[in-house]
# Entry
Amino acid sequence: MSTIPLAEAVTRAETALEKGRLEDARQLVEAVRRVAPEAVSTQRLWGGLLLRRGEFVAAEEILGRVVQVNPEDARAWALLAESRRTRGEREEARALLQVAWECAPWQRTYAQQLAEWFAEDGIEGQLFPSAACLSAWYFVQGWWARASEECRAALERLGERWDVRQRLCLALWWQGARREAAGEAERILSVHPEMIGALVVAALSARERGDEGEARRHRELLWELDPVGEVIERTVPMERWEERAWLALPEPIVVEEHWLVAPLGETELLWELPSEEELEAARPSGVAPLMEAA
# Structure
């Protein structure tokens, strides 16, 4: 039985959800859940599917788990916002969508949707980048000192925000303030022991200290929660290829394709049928083709 990488199965499921092919999405999500049930990508897909099926309470419970493990998951925040909006909780929905925008300000769809919601609710004005928003921009650009400054400013104004706290922890690490970053990671994990960004810093810190046991524990938990490597892709700079390789799952998880084939007639075929010429070339010598019934 052929297999495909878990990352490809996740992408297929996301596409099916976006296009409203809920039965395809269900089969794909179930296939992914069989091999990586605790992964944040799996949980986000499952929550998104439940939301599309109108199971809002269950969806929000699962998506809440996602943002607890990775508080910078903009897609999960946006799905939570959509659920609250559908349930009529407009103010709460706007607040959640703003968090999504502040986690990924380069995604214009969040800002556009937020502006539309404000307009629909009769609230006039313009959107301006907040300190949290700027910290995400600076982080993705690799401007670690600026990102740290904006994170601190955001925390002073907003109080505790775990997405910003995690971003500060990571920015400090790449800025070179290793001891301070390790301290932030330790404080975060004492409250949220599965927060992925803090696990990245804690694992790298333990490795740097030569504590192989602690490094291994953090890394194995990271593999369980993010086998696709979404968080590593975003939080570890491209040029830090050695750290990326060390943090990545040694062997990619695969999904058996027989779990992905939907009943004929409901989705497109996953392969192309051979042409008449290809069939003729493949026919053993001396075997005549079957005649069509009259």
Summary: Confidence is low (pLDDT under 50) at residues 261-273, 286-294. The longest strand covers residues 3-5.
